[in-house]
Amino acid sequence: MSSDPGTIDEVVRHPTARTVRLRLCPASGRVRLTVPRRAGMAAAIAWANGKRDWIAEQRARLPAAVPLAGGTILRVADRDLLIVREEGRRRAVVLDGDRLLVAGPADTVARRVEAWLKRAALDLLTAETAEFAAKAEVVVAAVKVGDPLGRWGSCAASGTIRYSWRLLLSPGRVRRATVAHEVAHRVHMNHGPAFHALTAALLGEDPAPARSWLRDHGAALHRIGRV
Ligand SMILES: [Zn+2]
Fold first, then answer.
1. What's the pTM?
2. Nearest 5 degrees, angle CA 74-CA 80-CA 83?
3. Side by side, which strands form the sheet with 142-146?
4. 11 CB-near residues (< 8 Å, 6+ apart)
5. What is the pLDDT of residue 29?
6. Which of 37, 57, 64, 141 could form a disulfide with 159 if both were Cys (CB 3.0 to 4.6 A apart)?
7. 8 near 130, Cβ under 8 Å?
8. Distance 146 CA to ligand 1 centre (A)
9. Tens digit of each residue's pLDDT (9 = 90 or more) over 187-204
10. pLDDT digit string, tens, across residues 161-176
11. How far does residue 114's CA lie from ligand 1's centre (Å)?
12. How many angstroms separate the alpha carbon of residue 17 from the centre of ligand 1?
């Protein structure tokens, strides 16, 4: 993020956009100005410059970014993990009790911690998906993790379930409710009453509080590792 909170970070010409628009990316905090193919660039930029107060206000509302760096405490699967920088050249990130030890070059720490978290997310989500799939008596073809902005999980007709790795940073109940939701889609490819009943039965509790937790705190999860 730039130091001037009213700054526009990117200007893109868009072939099919119909109007000039400004958008703040909730993950990166970057502001993009989209200009339709035939619109005047200078006029679009002048318009956007008139919105600097609005941009600054939107940025100020973003949850704080959390660096994946030494000294940061992350809430990971219901436990606090402290990232600790160590001397030496070891490339592997090592979990030692409640500490995540990271040696090696400083400029690769964030990337390696994120890779470790993604791996941990995949392991945990794979195990929980298998647990719920056995309960529901369905087959899940594959489990994958990614970093989508708009959704926490998705289930393809092919049987592949994809999750946001950031679910690892949410409370366990929230994560498990998301897994139960996606596994229930292996039975019902809709959000009808039978689907909701199955999700609650798999989970053993009402998943609604988990959904609302993600609505309230999801933006903050997207700010982790974004510095
Ligand atoms: Zn769904």
1. 0.88
2. 50
3. 142-146, 160-164, 153-155
4. 32, 33, 35, 41, 44, 45
5. 87
6. 141
7. no
8. 17
9. 999 999 999 999 999 999
10. 999 999 999 999 999 9
11. 26
12. 29
- Rounded to the nearest angstrom, the distance between the alpha carbon of 91 and the centre of ligand 1 is 38
Distance 189 CA to ligand 1 centre (A): 8
Q: Assess contact for 22 and 33: CB atoms under 8 A.
A: yes
Q: pLDDT band at 182, cuts 50/70/90? A: very high
How far is ligand 1, taken at its centre, from the CA of residue 209, in Å?
Answer: 15
Instruction: Give, in order, the Cα–Cα distances in Å from 125 to each of 44, 57, 150.
Output: 45, 37, 19
| pLDDT of the residue at 3 | 62
The rounded Å distance from CA 191 to ligand 1 centre is 6
In 3D space, the residue among 214, 139, 171, 177 whose CA is nearest the CA of residue 75 turns out to be 171
Count Cα atoms within 13 angstroms, Cβ side, for 75: 10
Distance 104 CA to ligand 1 centre (A): 41
